[in-house]
Amino acid sequence: xxxxxxxxxxxxxxxxxxxxxxxxxxxxxxxxxxxxxxxxxxxxxxxxxxxxxxxxxxxxxxxxxxxxxxxxxxxxxxxxxxxxxxx
Amino acid sequence: xxxxxxxxxxxxxxxxxxxxxxxxxxxxxxxxxxxxxxxxxxxxxxxxxxxxxxxxxxxxxxxxxxxxxxxxxxxxxxxxxxxxxxxxxxxxxxxxxxxxxxxxxxxxxxxxxxxxxxxxxxxxxxxxxxxxxxxxxxxxxxxxxxxxxxxxxxxxxxxxxxxxxxxxxxxxxxxxxxxxxxxxxxxxxxxxxxxxxxxxxxxxxxxxxxxxxxxxxxxxxxxxxxxxxxxxxxxxxxxxxxxxxxxxxxxxxxxxxxxxxxxxxxxxxxxxxxxxxxxxxxxxxxxxxxxxxxxxxx
Lengths: 87, 298
Fold this sequence. Notes:
Largest sheet of chain A: 5 strands, mixed, barrel
Distance between the termini of chain A: 34 Å
Structural class of chain B: alpha/beta
Low-confidence stretches of chain B: 200-206
CATH superfamily of chain A: F0F1 ATP synthase delta/epsilon subunit, N-terminal
Largest sheet of chain B: 5 strands, mixed
CATH topology of chain B: Pyruvate Kinase, Chain: A, domain 1
Mean pLDDT of chain A: 84
Strand content of chain A: over 45%
Strand order of the largest sheet of chain A: 1-2-4-5-6
Helix content of chain B: 55-70%
Shape of chain B: elongated
Radius of gyration of chain A: 12 Å
Low-confidence stretches of chain A: none
Number of strands of chain A: 6
Mean pLDDT of chain B: 86
Structural class of chain A: mainly beta
Radius of gyration of chain B: 29 Å
Number of domains of chain A: 1
Number of domains of chain B: 1
Number of helices of chain B: 5
Number of strands of chain B: 6
CATH class of chain A: Mainly Beta
CATH topology of chain A: ATP Synthase, domain 1
CATH class of chain B: Alpha Beta
Strand order of the largest sheet of chain B: 3-2-1-4-5
Order of helices and strands of chain A: EEEEEE
Oligomer: heterodimer
CATH architecture of chain B: 3-Layer(aba) Sandwich
CATH superfamily of chain B: ATP synthase, F1 complex, gamma subunit
């Protein structure tokens, strides 16, 4: 089972594809998502989103805050542009 | 060369230089359209993700949030119209303004007071000429809007929406923009951006029920975080759509102008030729009659 991940910014898609594990910096700490996690919506602060793709390669994407939603093994990260909204 | 001919030649020359300008503008618009469409495409996943998230939150959490509840404390509503910075785009700006004015009349019939916001120099001069007050105006880059402009507009509109009634707060936010369908089809559209119209309990067959989300930290804070981004994404995507439409409209208008200039040039060449022929005919008949007169007198 794999996660479908979409990380989108205001001017385009930053990362899109299948992954096994995703972490994101939420305002209350950090969250790690494996498949079959319960549906969640969370506000993100500035930090790094990491995505482990199917080959086990880890991508690190810095975001300037944003928003994450997870349901039915689909992760959507709405990332702000780096300098916007502060953190 | 006779005076008539000179006038025609002058007109042909000036029309030819106009034609070159039209042609250049057509080509510029055509070359920028691809870029503008790409940007529309690039921005749409973000807008879609935010809209989806907002709908999910609003559907689930029974939260009282300014985002979803109708304000009743003020009759003022904000109306943003997106127009072009430059003309030469056919009826592009005129159509957007017409839609905007129609909406304004409708809103006023409902007893609402319209607070006007405008993006684009052409729109501003329209309202300025009619001495209508503008609550906000933005110019520059109407054919390639920047995210910064969108953020600026979004901030101003959001501030008005969240302000208390006695400080110029507005109850609704309407946006008039031009939607890009294709090179030959653009349509000015009116949308109500705020408050959100939440569609509840109307799930069709086969549509999945959205899951029960956990909210972190809380539904209210999630909505608070989404609201500015939502408006921003909305405004940005409308600006981009309008920019693509503007360029398409300009390209078409300039194409027509080039064709018209060609027609005029052809017409003037004919007239100039006729004038030259008339002159020659007259000269010949003068010579012939002169020779005749000499022959008759000798």
